[in-house]
Structures are given as structure tokens and as C-alpha cells.
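--- STAGE predict ---
source: upstream dedup step, 1 unique chain passed
mode: sequence only
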Amino acid sequence: MRRRKAAIALVLAALLGGAPAFALPDTDGHPAEAEIDRAVRQGWLSCGAGDRFAPDAALTRATFVEALAKLDGAALPPAGRAFSDVPAGRSYARAVQWAVVNGIATGTAPGLFSPDAAVTREQAAVMLIRHANYSGVALPRRRSRAVRFSDLDACSDSGLDALYTLYRAGVFDTEDGAICPADVMTRADCARVLSRYQQACAQTCPNNQRAMVISHMGYSAEAPENTLEAYALADSKQYIYVETDVRFTRDNVPVLLHDATIDRTSDGTGAVAQMTYDELQRFRFDAGKDGYDDAALPQFRAFIQLCAARYLHPYIELKPVVSGRQLEQMFDIVAAYGMEQHVTWISFAYANLERIRRADPQAELGYVCSEVDDGTIARAEQLKTGQNTVYLCARYTALNSTVRAQCLRAGVYLEVWTIDERKTAIQQLNTSAQGITVDRLTPADIYR
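--- STAGE serialize ---
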């Protein structure tokens, strides 16, 4: 992957270095003239007789796959025999085999690839997303996530998710608000899209174009979970977003604790709701990790103070159902540090989110769920007030293109949990998901 990114970067440097343009008689003055010139110069696309490019001719599946293979620079395998309509002697045969073997393209029917069939915008988008995943590149987020295509119902589920992701990355454009999923790509379109895609993959992704990478309970891979030490460590590892779990002690002090008991994370036993905060101070909350003998159970106030001082955005998970008085207490703490517009309230308990919605119509909310169905998405949609942002925070194994498309159509943002392998992280980030929650992966691990 590093060699592939380096090769793409070298190509980009050559393109920006002012090499002389090709003189193509049928592209002079074309809106995509510069991109066509680039695509021909780099060998992604070729001309026909008389150096004619035919910019407005329909793009075929074979041409697109061959162009993508050339952009990738991969060593191509021998031609396969899976498709009766892809003879081994054709120039694109090895590219088709490469694309199929690596999950970038599929056949159109058993034994058929349909190499001469035209490629639609959504078909091209799906293949580009698969290529980004194959390449291990998390695409940038250059445009607003709030876009809502006027023709989104004309998209297939997988096409909508891919087109949204690539529109957000600046690869595809809209036309008067429409994404035009079924429109046939032209050769000029191909040159423009591949040029933008290559640049998106080659350039280092700046912080303001990255997805949300949320540190689960702080950097608990090294420090004890849900401690101030874990959140300070997350900050040092360049996380901007951190997640915590809040429960209340017997004397109504909000503290950071995932479980209902202190058994797993401390040297004590018992339910946190049955002990006062002072009683809990007797225990060491080192979660069995060496070097943290002084780790204590933090109050919610100390956590918010740390987030405000370090410019961290907390995702506050309310574990049990909280009372109105308890919620008011947390609101007051958040307000005391000027964090009202810089927190996200999340919970499995829908009643908690309804209570927050009523108390603060602008509060950013996340409905956490392990499984997703139509009812789950509908409940998340009902949390919208017209003034707030709502997330469906779902286990990544519960998601597919249909669920993502339903969320896009409902105007509900997706956040995905909990991911610890880079390959899976890339696959989830190259979707309409706005962010992922992780235990060990750092932003530097993903955007390298």
C-alpha cells in the first residue's frame, strides 16, 4: 500500500509540474480538457485513430476497469477464464481479472462481464469505493456532510452510499442538486473523475477533512478505561473525540464507569449506585494495568473540565435511565465550562434521549444500538428537532448498504462502533458513516 501511495504521489507531482499538453483535435475547449490531457498523458486512457479521444462517447466497463488498473499501477495477473465474453487476447483481459480477484468489479451474470456495456455514475462510484478499500485509503471529507441529493430515491442502496461518499470527497459533482445515478459516464467524465480520485488518494488528508475517530473510554489500550489518565493519553495521541460512560453514586454524584459494578475495573466490589462517592475513593481504579496505582474514579465534572482545557469533544453515554434532576445536574456542569455546543449525548436508553431532546432542542444526540431495523432508524429520526444533529450509533456488524441508504434518506447520520482493525476502519470510513469509535487505532494509524 505504501508503494502504491508513493507511486500515486509521484504521478501527481509530475502532473503539477507543467508537462506539455497533448494536442487532441477533439478536446480543444472541452470543459474537461485539462483532465483528459492528464488521463492520456498518464496512460490511463488512450486515443483512437487520428489522436481522437471521443470525449463524449459512452464509457464501457472494460475501459473503466482498464483505466483504473493503470491508475493503480498494480502488476496484473494473467487473464482469467471466468467470463466467456472476455477473450484472453483482449487488452483489458488482465485488468478485468485483477479487478475481479481483488473485489473491485464483478460479473453482470454467471460467466459474463459485459465488457462493452456502458458504465453508469453509480456503477463507477461503487467500483471506486471498492478500489479505495483495496488500496487502504480513507477518502477525505472535502464537502459538507449535510448534502441531500434531490434524486436520492433514484439511487440503488449501494449506489447512494458510494455516490454520497465520493461527492463528500470531491470526486463526483451534482447537477442542480441531483447526483444523476443512472446517467451513463462518458470518456470525459472518466478522465475528470479519475483525476480527482487520484488526487484524493495521493494527498495527505488534513485534519479538517478527516472523519471523527472517537476514543472509546479514553485510550484504554494503555491506561485504565474511563480515567482522567486515559483521556489525557488520548489527547496526546491526537484524538479530538472521546467517549465516556456516566453513572450516579448513591449520593447522586455523576462518575465515569462503564459497568454497574466496580468489580472489573477496581480492587473493590459492589454496585456503584449503592456506594457514596467518598466510599468509592477507597478503591484503586487501575483496571489491572501496571503503573496506575493512583488511578481514582473520576467525577463527571473533572472529565468535562479536562475536555474543555484540552479542546476535546466528549461523547457522553448515559448508561441507565437518568432522572430529570440528574440530567439537569449534568447540563449545569457542561454549561459551567462553556461546553454546551461541544458535547454529544448518547445512550442505548431511548428515554434518556427523549428527555434531553425536550430539555435542549439543540443538543446533539446519538441513539446507540447493537442491531438496526426500520424501527431503529425511525426512532432516531424522531429525535430530530430541526435544530439539532442526530446520529445512529450502531455496531458495525449490523450495517450494510441498505441500512446506510435508509439513514441517508431519513437524514440521520451514522456513527459506527467499535473497530480495532485498520482494514475494517477503512471499509467503514469509506461509506456515509461520519465517524468510528475505536479502542486502539489512533488517527495516525488510519490516516498514514
